[in-house]
Design goal:
alpha/beta, six-stranded mixed β-sheet, Rossmann fold, Nitrilase/N-carbamoyl-D-aminoacid amidohydrolase, 21 strands, 580 residues
Length: 580
């Protein structure tokens, strides 16, 4: 029996293309007995959020689903080909409002129509997931017999038991197998969001389940970027020992003969059952040193390459689905904007355009001007110069004249940043270019940015990277690709909004700051615990104070491409008006 994993890439709600592609697979005759697998919620896309409640969306889905089923019934029966897809199953009340919404596996049966086989049991409700808000859970295991093989069915989270759930789908499958006999294959239809290291977690868990059941495990995942969430694909089949994998961040089809199980059967370790749940998912990625303070665990070359690939993929997915072919970056001569420009250049496709704009003030150094030009020359990117010195001076004079209150201190610094934001979006309006934000996770965490100034942009590339990791990535690019002047890395970081300004005047050194923030944002370390492992109490209190008071800025920030287990954005929800 052949297993075919269709690692697909579709825009949410693109029913015409989704069903058209499915029809092509079903219409294509197969010589051998074959099981074709499509991802979780393939028929609609994921995550759907409130779309599942929107009447127009429901009607369009059901119209396309019913039309597809009629087409299926008109096709010639083919017992050699089993096609399993993820979709939604609705039941309505007397007012035609959704009574239940189930996340299901459908079998597409030519000559008969659609057959609902299984309903997802575990509805994740942590971080970016809120499936309990929308879906009705299943409570039964399912085993089907096809082509002389017994196949156990699971959907995404069902392979991960957690103490947050009342039932364990693996135990349910165990019990069913105990009554009806062993299974020959386990399949999992997934829409599993990406973060760094997620593929390894999936494979380890799948191997453990293959060894538990004594059967190979087939896992199919979708590909795509939905706002800030990435889906990496990396579908695979494991026989308990070996792994056969599809591509990463690319649409792909993986075809292979069902492998025989290899190795010894093993019972699941109960302690592994919560590995993907909120209790253990958000681990503080800190490297503890013997005679000095903990630091963020540095990224190696392989991790840097994966993050670069993820960010470039995420940028393109967001831009293409929003209809942009031009990009605009505000270049400052600092490491963050320099790295964003470099990544945007790496992501660029034929027919797309990238432009940088440099807006120096009276406080901008000659080195910043030099570095901005040098980087653009190296990358072959046009650079526009738009000094703000005169605008800054004029608006300062007008404040004194019209309001009788001169701009000084923070107000004077922020007005420079907001002038740049206005110019940036003026240029965006002229060219139709998408503005890429240049803030990093450290700045977002402590509010070290200006609302409607340097915080502007349609999407953030670095919003899930601490400053230390910005440097990791920059050093890696210098080493592997060149083009990024070393002075970007070597110069002290500065916003250049006042004379001789440096970040270190307002914040602890980034090596310390990032470690403290990682402890706080992973939900693992309190202020007291951070002091207990050696951090200065006053610095910890200062960082915590800045972090808690900056919620209103993060609440208005653009989508952040997610590459970590715990990120700001959709999966991070805090009240703004809380007592600090």
């Amino acid at each position: 029996m052949q297993i075919v994993l269709h690692q697909t890439q579709h825009q949410i709600g693109d029913f015409k293309q989704i069903f058209q592609d499915l029809k092509l697979v079903i219409s294509n005759p197969v010589g051998a007995h074959q099981v074709s697998l499509f991802p979780e919620l393939y028929l609609l896309g994921y995550p759907l959020q409130d779309l599942v409640l929107q009447k127009d969306f429901i009607e369009r889905y059901l119209e396309n689903l019913n039309s597809f089923e009629e087409w299926l019934k008109s096709q010639k029966e083919n017992s050699k080909h089993t096609v399993l897809v993820g979709g939604l199953h609705y039941q309505f009340d007397e007012d035609e409002l959704p009574l239940t919404i189930e996340n299901v596996i459908y079998e597409c049966v030519p000559g008969q129509g659609l057959r609902k086989l299984y309903t997802k049991c575990l509805l994740p409700n942590y971080d970016i997931f809120d499936e309990e808000k929308y879906f009705t859970p299943g409570s039964r295991a399912a085993v089907i017999e096809r082509h002389g093989h017994r196949i156990g069915l699971l959907i995404c989270e069902d392979m991960w038991f957690s103490s947050t759930h009342d039932i364990d789908p693996i135990k349910l499958l165990d019990q069913l197998c105990g009554k009806t006999g062993a299974i020959d294959l386990i399949i999992n239809l997934s829409a599993s969001p990406y973060f760094l290291g997620k593929d390894e977690k999936r494979e380890q868990r799948a191997k453990a389940l293959a060894q538990h059941f004594g059967a190979p495990f087939a896992y199919v995942n979708r590909v795509g970027g939905e706002d800030e969430i990435l889906f990496d694909g990396q579908s695979f089949v494991t026989n308990g020992e070996k792994i056969w994998s599809a591509k990463k961040f690319e649409e792909d089809i993986l075809t292979l003969e069902k492998p025989d199980f290899e190795g010894e059967r093993k019972e699941l370790n109960p302690n592994e059952r919560i590995e993907n749940s909120w209790e253990s998912l958000f681990k503080a990625e800190l490297h503890f040193q013997k005679k000095s303070l903990p630091i963020l665990t540095p990224w190696g070359e392989e991790q840097c390459e994966e993050v670069i690939e993820a960010l470039c993929f995420g940028l393109q997915e967001y831009a293409e689905k929003c209809g942009f072919k031009k990009f605009l970056v505000a270049l400052s001569g600092g490491i963050d904007s320099g790295l964003v420009l470099y990544l945007a250049k790496l992501a660029l496709k034929p027919g797309q355009e990238l432009e940088a704009i440099y807006m120096p003030s009276q406080y901008s150094s000659s080195l910043s001007t030099q570095l901005a030009q040098e980087l653009c020359d190296n990358l072959g990117i046009p650079l526009r110069h738009f000094p703000i010195k005169f605008l800054h001076s004029t608006i300062g004079q007008e404040f004194s004249r019209q309001i009788n209150s001169p701009l000084t201190g923070l107000a004077d610094e922020n007005i420079q940043s907001r002038l740049r934001g206005a110019i940036l979006y003026g240029r965006s309006n002229q060219t139709g270019a998408m503005v890429i934000n240049t803030s990093n996770k450290s700045e977002l965490a402590v509010g070290y940015s200006t609302l409607y100034g340097d915080s502007v942009g349609a999407v953030s590339l670095l919003g899930d990277l601490y400053k230390s990791q910005v440097y990791d990535l920059a050093r890696h690019l210098v080493k592997t690709r060149g083009g990024l002047p070393m002075a970007y890395i070597e110069r002290p970081p500065s916003a250049e909004l006042r004379e001789n300004q440096q970040d270190s005047q307002s914040l602890p050194p980034y090596e310390k700051l990032d470690a403290i923030l990682e402890g706080l944002l992973s939900y693992r370390l309190s202020q007291k615990k951070l002091q207990g492992i050696g951090f200065n109490g006053d610095e910890v209190a200062k960082v915590y104070g800045l972090y808690t008071k900056s919620e209103y800025k993060r609440n208005q920030f653009c989508p952040i491409i997610k590459v970590k287990a715990k990120s700001f954005g959709f999966g991070y929800r805090m009240p703004i008006t809380k007592k600090s």
